[in-house]
Write a structure and sequence with these properties.
Elements: E1 6-10, H1 13-20, H2 30-41, E2 46-50, H3 57-67
Parallel strand pairs: 1-2
């Protein structure tokens, strides 16, 4: 993808732990977890960190503001080359 360093931060400790486990996730959201793990493997240097909800407040506010933008909203989707 061309990213030299990627840091994934989230306030859901269960999700961040699942992303760090080497075992296959068989939970209800297991397919999404495994998809994220596969994407993580394609990155040169990817770290997954848990942050408190308070520490994640800036991202939360930014996401909420995006919901109320007037005009055109562009969402970016990262896709893998096959």
């Amino acid at each position: 993808m061309g990213l030299s360093k990627t840091v994934v931060e989230g306030d859901a400790i269960v999700i961040t732990r699942k992303l760090l486990e080497d075992t296959t996730d068989l939970s209800v959201i297991g397919n999404r977890i495994e998809e994220a793990k596969d994407l993580k493997k394609t990155l040169t240097n990817c770290m997954v960190n848990h942050v408190s909800r308070k520490g994640n407040m800036a991202a939360h506010r930014l996401a909420r503001e995006a919901l109320f933008l007037s005009g055109k909203l562009t969402l970016w989707k990262i896709t893998q080359k096959v």
